[in-house]
Queue: 2 jobs
Job 1
Amino acid sequence: MQPRLPFRFPGIAADVERLRVKLTEALSLAGFVADSPAAVLNLACGRADETGTLFAALSPAQVGFYLGIDLLPGDIAEATKRWKPETPDTRIEFRAGDASRTERMRELPPFDLVFIRHQNYWHDAPVWDRLLENALAALKPGGVLAITSYFDREHALALTALKLRGAELLVNFRHAESRILDDAPNKSVDRHLAVLRRR
Ligand SMILES: C[S@@+](CC[C@H](N)C(=O)[O-])C[C@H]1O[C@@H](n2cnc3c(N)ncnc32)[C@H](O)[C@@H]1O
């Protein structure tokens, strides 16, 4: 799926292409094959630059429903302009709201893939404990949760929180080619990628 609006910064297209390669590899190693049509939930998605990446990584399955949620209305508005369905069988929705409260969104289907790019556990552990618990609860049987992290400590914290909530770690990569962030020592784009399922 092609973006309808150019990405905001140079380098993003290459970042999301690297993510596509790694995520495809990780899902395959996890033995995950999405149902078609698949339902995908992208939590704390920001501008959701990786939307096309997620659709590609699930191929040949088609995405029937894709929902991105973030607190920032400006990012959600930008994502809505950038990503439009390419077939009438796909529904794409972005919502401004609290992604840690998905248990209150009663009309949601069970999801094949829940994705969290650059999870933010470090920022507010209690909120992210709830967000991760709900992320696992949102999976359909056989569904997987994939997370990426900017830095080592935050990745370890999120994995511990997930394991405490009954998650099983299927795949865990340190991404050797991830782009270093010059203004943030020891952080890089999609530095870690993990795939988990509910026990
Ligand atoms: C590190 S950024 C990652 C954004 C995006 N996933 C990416 O990789 O570009 C963390 C994001 O989490 C969002 N966020 C934090 N807490 C949230 C919550 N409770 N509900 C929804 N979004 C949240 C922030 O607004 C921010 O966009």
Job 2
Amino acid sequence: MTPQMPAWLDPSPWLDGRVATPADVERALTCDEPGPRELAALLSPAAHPFMEVMAQSARALTRRHFGRTISMYAPLYLANYCTNGCAYCGFASDRVQPRCRLELPEVEEELATLKEMGFEEVLLLTGERTSHAGFDYLLECVSLAAQRFHAVGVEVFPMTTREYALLAEAGCSGVTIYQETYDPRRYDRLHRWGPKKDYLDRLDAPARAMEAGMRTVGLGVLLGLSDPAFDAVCLLRHAAHLRRDHWKSGITLSFPRLRPQAGNFAATFPVDEAWLARLVFAVRIVLPDVPLLLSTRERPEFRDGMAGLGISKMSAGSRTSVGGYGVAEPATEGQFEVGDKRSVPDVCAMLRSRGLEPVFKNWDSVFRGGEACGHG
Ligand code: SF4
């Protein structure tokens, strides 16, 4: 049965078939409190001629709220076991590839490598909750990471409020959970089996994480799965809903695009770089103070151009396979192909050449409640 979209999320009042005009776009660009209507106008065909104005506006807003800094983080894949059938993912349970998890000494090694690379913020990733990589395993990994890193986030499976609270106690400060697409029909078709098929449970997970005291929650959609304008307006609605009810926590937004992966799923709604750039500009204009992330999925030239132009946080030197930072050849394939394979020093040099400063630490573990990490 197709899941029902809750009324608070429904974007149809702003995507009602009415064609936005250049006047709507101009209004959106000068509006004091832009919202879903303005976002829809900025993403409409009428906004094509306004790309340069939007880029300048996005740059000015990013500079006002984030200065010339770009926060840096690194993903760390802990395990690639998964029971879900996400049609677009190289880790889906029907993809034939070696499965493994990092044992705790290996997690420590990978963390040490990331530390040597200069990172102070790490994002731990797994597939769906399994007996190989379930909550207890994740809790241990978070504790290990929190001893070394000032900011620890997880991008894993949806949890209960109680579980999120236990993770927060262990030192986790951020939860990233993408809805992938907000279109219930597409969601149902793309998530062929497994617990992730539960659209509403996933939709509610960020609220549970915030309720449990997480400092930040990361939202996003996987661009290419569904109508990107529809998903963008829903993303804004979701963020607004969470901000209203959980104002003590922060939101971050990411813009992952489908990348080649095992299974060769092709994007049904391909999003090119020009469209992605416009999306980032438009979101920056309607959410001027929210950190916007761009990962190494994108190619170097595009990332270089977007740094500071809406984007305020980036990963670098990323590996998307389990054990990818170790010296030995990783035993698994990556979740997706990395587009920007440059080293951390190369990405930092690029940022500095553009007058931007990479920032590795903008949060101190001492704020976790007196329990400072070993590198304080
Ligand atoms: S997207 Fe996540 S949940 Fe879906 S198959 Fe891949 S690893 Fe599993």
